[in-house]
Specification:
Among the domains are: 169-226; 257-418, no CATH class. The two termini are 34 Å apart. Helix content is 36%, strand content 27%. Helix 1 runs antiparallel to helix 2 and helix 6 (180-198) runs antiparallel to helix 7 (208-226). The longest helix has 25 residues, at 44-68. It has 438 residues and is α+β, with helices and mostly antiparallel strands.
């Protein structure tokens, strides 16, 4: 008989009980590794007695700590209780949700567990991590959290999704290999190994270690992270699934992407592919770097199609760009929806910022550019890979771009068009209507 699923909108939940023995085992191993050699001088009996004491002591703490650490949905708020000695409670309004991820490291996959991460605006301390949940519970909570954030009842069904792009593994493998740093490091590694063997100089092999580590970081890391990458769109925003050893499902709701960067390295241009990165409100610090990539590698046409998907009613390719002139200057332009800049000779970078989400505008002149009459136009956005700045523009062009951004921004901003409760807001126009909304 199938197990009856508890209603996630009303129940009180805890992490899976497996977390208790795991914590006890971890504490015992650390104790044995650090204190074991010292206690061994007093004999095996002392080691055994102290180890048993650590096991029962950690169990006496971890078990009630697990029992008192609860969480649940109360209306459109997520309430989290934690701590045993120092009790703490957090009440998170889901209308301020920025992103929600379901992460499954390899060990959690073995035991059918997952971690739910709820990202909020507010910096490094804003993320809420619900660890060691049953996978089905994490998925149902993700759906309920997104429904509340959209302004719908928590029992609303999950919004349907439409396939957008699946990354072929040969393309990912070839794109990671077809990069200048990887190719140069591989050639240098072969030269060092050849020199060490031919001339019999073992000291050469000392330089092999950093090269191997560099290759692992620039090749093996992205390969395992973005294997089986799949992107889809839905009424709840952009959904990304990827990972070899750590499976992750990332959901970015509508309106949370503040700026986008399309990166086309020199060798990738020969393949006609690009990488898409984004400034996502709510991600900060290391989480910004881990979650900024929307497409690790894709055909250039699909990359700009994704830009148009996250910024509805716009077309980044059609924005007219005026050349800044020179190798180190930007091409920049703006229309009623987007501010677009392009720069880079060897690695071409295109930054796209929606004008209604620009937080501030600036016109900068450096000590050297003052003599050339060149200015920098900057559109401030939340932290992330896209900086929204156009460098080295002729003064008249820079001021015309700034004036256009001011005018377009005034017309584009709508005080009622915030990013909260996107499914019930009539001012947000999208190509697809969320079928869950009333």
């Amino acid at each position: 008989m199938p197990r009856t699923l508890q209603d996630v909108t009303t129940g009180v939940f805890r992490a899976h009980w497996f977390v208790v023995p795991f914590q006890v085992i971890a504490v015992t191993i650390v104790f044995a590794a650090l204190a074991g050699p010292i206690l061994g001088l007093f004999g095996f009996d002392w080691v055994l007695m102290m180890t048993v004491g650590v096991v029962f002591g950690s169990l006496a703490y971890c078990l009630p700590a697990w029992w008192y650490a609860t969480f649940g949905l109360r209306g459109d708020h997520l309430v989290v209780h934690s701590g045993l000695v120092l009790r703490g409670s957090r009440e998170i309004p889901l209308s301020r949700l920025q992103a929600v991820d379901v992460v499954r490291p390899l060990l959690m996959q073995v035991f059918g567990l997952a971690e739910l991460r709820v990202e909020l605006a507010g910096g490094d301390g804003s993320v809420v991590r619900l660890r060691c949940l049953r996978h089905d519970l994490a998925e149902r909570l993700r759906v309920a959290v997104l429904a509340h954030a959209a302004g719908l009842p928590g029992r609303a069904p999950e919004a349907p999704e439409w396939p957008f792009y699946r990354l072929p593994f040969p393309l990912l493998l070839g794109a990671l290999l077809f990069r200048v740093p990887v190719l140069l490091a591989f050639v240098a590694l072969l030269m060092l190994l050849t020199a060490g063997v031919v001339f019999g100089e073992p000291g050469v092999f000392g330089a092999v270690v950093p090269l191997v580590l560099g290759l692992l970081g620039h090749f093996w890391g992205p390969l395992t992270r973005y294997t089986d990458f799949y992107a889809s769109t839905s009424g709840d925003g952009l959904r990304l699934r990827y990972g070899m050893f750590q499976r992750r499902m990332q959901t970015v709701p509508p309106g949370r992407v503040q700026a986008v960067r399309v990166v086309e390295p020199l060798l990738w241009r020969a393949l006609g592919v690009a990488r898409v990165e984004a400034n996502v409100a709510g991600y900060a610090g290391a989480r910004q770097g881990d979650s900024a990539t929307l497409l690790p590698v894709a055909p250039r046409s699909r990359a700009f199609a994704l830009v148009n998907e996250v910024f509805p009613d716009s077309d980044a390719v059609s924005v007219p760009l005026a050349s800044g002139g020179g190798l180190h200057h930007s091409d920049a332009g703006a229309d009623e929806h987007l501010f677009v800049t392009t720069h880079g000779l060897f690695c071409r970078v295109t930054d796209v910022v929606p004008v209604e989400r620009v937080q501030a505008l600036r016109l900068a002149e450096g000590p050297l550019t003052r003599f050339t009459g060149r200015l920098t136009v900057g559109a401030d956005t939340p932290p992330g890979p896209a900086d929204g700045r156009a460098y080295g523009l002729e003064s008249g062009h820079a001021r015309s771009v700034l004036d256009a951004l001011v005018a377009h921004g005034r017309r584009a901003r709508n005080p009622d068009a915030g990013t909260e409760r996107w499914a019930t807001r009539a001012t947000l126009t999208r190509g697809r209507h969320d079928p869950r909304s009333p």
